[in-house]
Amino acid sequence: MSISKKRAVIALLAISSLIFTAACGDGGAARPNTGNNQDGSVNAVSEAPAAYRNSCIGCHAADLRGNVGPNSNLQKVGSRLSRDEIADIIANGKPNTRMPAFSKQLSEEEIQELADWLAEMK
Ligand code: HEC
Q1: Residue 17 CB neighbours (<10 A)
Q2: Where does heme c bind (predicted)?
């Protein structure tokens, strides 16, 4: 192997190990609040589907209490609405409220998973 080829290989190895380190570097950093409530109430979000943490937590909060008014409280949503009603609201939003439709952002599986999970909140 010529010197310059050797150099190229070493440079390549150095670059790929840099990329590798960068990719692993933030392991855990992206984990948002997991919802350890000070008063010990519902600690739902540690078991929430990833989609909840990514798309819902800003408005509905880590403990499901809701950040945008009393109607955004989802702590007992499963006793008010059926699983299918919940899935419908997630997909299509609630007209004339701040609850957006997610059918374009989330897959059908993600919506069903969220609905299954929320329907247990009673
Ligand atoms: C921009 C803020 C916002 C985001 C983001 C948001 N919501 Fe909502 N959501 C609301 C508000 C406000 C309400 C209450 C609407 C009303 O006045 O009835 C609501 C209501 C709901 C309801 C119906 C509750 C009920 O009792 O009628 C469900 C279910 C729901 N949201 C689930 C979700 C899920 C799941 C996500 C994430 C995929 C999400 N929301 C994201 C603001 C938001």
Answers
A1: 10
A2: 56, 59-60, 99
